[in-house]
């Protein structure tokens, strides 16, 4: 489940300390899943007991006690309650149901980190919570992938709307997503124009390759100060529609609903841990991205207090 480090022009927790929050995310995610799994196993064990058997308090809490013992060995004292988020525990919940509920909960957690800090908050458009492509990136890609979704980056002080930037341990992906449905077909009109067909309706629009070219220029300019030769990949993706053409350039990949699994498989092959140069690139891109936020009414803190944030799996 990838890390959503920037969403639109919202304030992000990763902007505070990109070198701290990625590892924190991975740890909290692991702890939360272990907690939910142990609780689920305890419930199933109770359900399988004969009706005449009344379990003791020790039997009910034994697994939780073991988990808490393990947790105290590997976490700080101030972190002991970070996973106390109320969870919808259905008695007939299957293990697959548990995993789906966890993924949904983690997505809300990612959205929270991508739109607030202890002292600041940005108002999130509700449409982002139902954005299928955003969910796909956040839920299907590995933890080591950093996602910047529709950020506004600065190029020589001029704001530039970007679509999707993925920062992996080995490469950067610039993605132009084309919205549609299973009746949508995208085709090329000319070098500068594409066509979107839905049944008998046809709409002409600027080629997404032009957007990718502009995005590449922005990224190359911002990362010019880094002494790195990390490759920059480019792709046009239609998650739900069809792209009815062959790529004219090997530098730009085309993925649609028929081949999206190939993109996902390529991302999942990245089993390397988070790299130092990956963090540096993310730091530069975040520093050169627009942020609009407001001071939280419920709490105001000094900048030094932000690094002590222990809200974690709690939501506003």
Straight-line N-to-C gap: 22 Å
Quick one: overall form? globular
The fraction of residues in strands falls at 15-25%
Biggest sheet record: 6 strands, mixed
InterPro entries: NERD (IPR011528)
Organism: Salisediminibacterium beveridgei
Protein name: NERD domain-containing protein
Write the layout of secondary structure elements.
Blueprint: E1 3-7, H1 13-16, H2 21-47, H3 57-74, H4 95-113, E2 120-121, H5 132-140, E3 146-149, E4 152-155, E5 158-161, E6 164-167, E7 172-177, E8 184-188, E9 193-198, E10 201-206, H6 208-222, E11 232-237, E12 242-243, E13 252-255, H7 260-268, H8 276-287, E14 294-295
Helix pairs in contact: 2-3, 2-4
3D architecture notes:
It is built from eight helices and 14 strands. The protein is an alpha/beta fold and 316 residues long. The protein has one domain. Helix 2 packs antiparallel against helix 3 and helix 2 runs antiparallel to helix 4.
């Amino acid at each position: 489940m990838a890390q959503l480090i920037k969403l639109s022009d919202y304030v992000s927790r990763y902007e505070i300390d990109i070198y701290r929050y990625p590892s924190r995310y991975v740890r909290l995610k692991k702890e939360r899943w272990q907690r939910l799994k142990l609780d689920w196993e305890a419930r199933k064990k109770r359900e399988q007991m004969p009706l005449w058997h009344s379990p003791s308090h020790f039997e009910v809490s034994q697994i939780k006690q073991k988990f808490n013992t393990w947790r105290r060995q590997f976490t700080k004292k101030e972190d002991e309650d970070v996973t106390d988020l109320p969870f919808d525990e259905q008695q007939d919940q299957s293990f697959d149901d548990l995993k789906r509920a966890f993924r949904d909960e983690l997505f809300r957690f990612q959205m929270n980190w991508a739109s607030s800090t202890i002292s600041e908050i940005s108002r999130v458009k509700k449409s982002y919570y139902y954005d299928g492509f955003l969910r796909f990136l956040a839920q299907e890609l590995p933890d080591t992938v950093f996602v910047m979704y529709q950020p506004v980056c600065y190029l020589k002080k001029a704001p530039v709307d970007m679509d999707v930037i993925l920062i992996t341990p080995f490469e950067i992906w610039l993605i132009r997503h084309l919205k549609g449905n299973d009746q949508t077909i995208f085709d090329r009109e000319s070098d500068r124009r594409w066509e979107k067909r839905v049944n008998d309706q046809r709409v002409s629009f600027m080629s997404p390759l032009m957007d990718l070219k502009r995005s590449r220029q922005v990224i190359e300019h911002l990362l010019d100060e880094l002494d790195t030769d990390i490759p920059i990949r480019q792709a046009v993706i239609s998650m739900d529609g069809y792209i009815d053409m062959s790529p004219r350039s090997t530098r730009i990949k085309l993925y649609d609903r028929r081949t999206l699994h190939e993109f996902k498989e390529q991302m999942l092959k990245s089993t390397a841990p988070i790299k130092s140069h990956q963090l540096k690139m993310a730091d530069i891109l975040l520093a050169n991205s627009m942020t609009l936020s407001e001071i939280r009414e419920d709490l105001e803190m000094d900048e030094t207090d932000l690094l002590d944030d222990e809200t974690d799996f709690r939501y506003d």
